[in-house]
Write a structure and sequence with these properties.
Layout: H1 6-23, H2 32-41, H3 49-55, H4 59-92, H5 96-109, H6 113-127
Length: 130
């Protein structure tokens, strides 16, 4: 499965840069551009608009939101990559049910829609095997 989603990649890359600046001690400037970035990014990691709008009330809560979004991206990425690796190894060994379980385990805990789609696609592919 080849994945190409330049828009999502660019959005998440902007968040990474913003978080890096904050982590280096720069205060978050809650400009309209930053607010828009957080508003667009939050739904990509299953954070509600209500939570976003509440977080955009001040710099401190917006910084918490930024870190929450980045944590979901980071944790979900690690989770899906690890599961894909285990799935691949199990599939090569002929353990298709074990491979399927790797994707089911991801789906049981994953909130990020993008990572859920990857797991669902992999699971569907495994289900098509004889």
């Amino acid at each position: 499965m080849e994945y190409v989603n330049a828009e999502l990649d660019a959005l998440w890359e902007q968040l990474w840069g913003l978080e890096n600046r904050v982590n280096q001690g720069e205060p978050l400037e809650l400009t309209e551009r930053v607010r828009d970035l957080l508003r667009r990014a939050a739904p990509t990691v299953a954070i509600s608009n209500t939570e976003v709008e509440a977080a955009l009330a001040d710099v401190e809560s917006a910084t918490v939101l930024l870190r929450k979004v980045r944590a979901r991206i980071h944790n979900g990425s690690n989770r899906i990559v690890d599961a894909l690796y285990r799935m691949s190894r199990l599939r090569k060994k002929g353990d298709i049910e074990g491979a399927r379980q790797q994707m089911r385990d991801v789906l049981a805990v994953e909130d990020v829609p993008h990572y859920r789609e990857i797991a669902e696609g992999q699971l569907a592919g495994l289900d098509e095997l004889p």
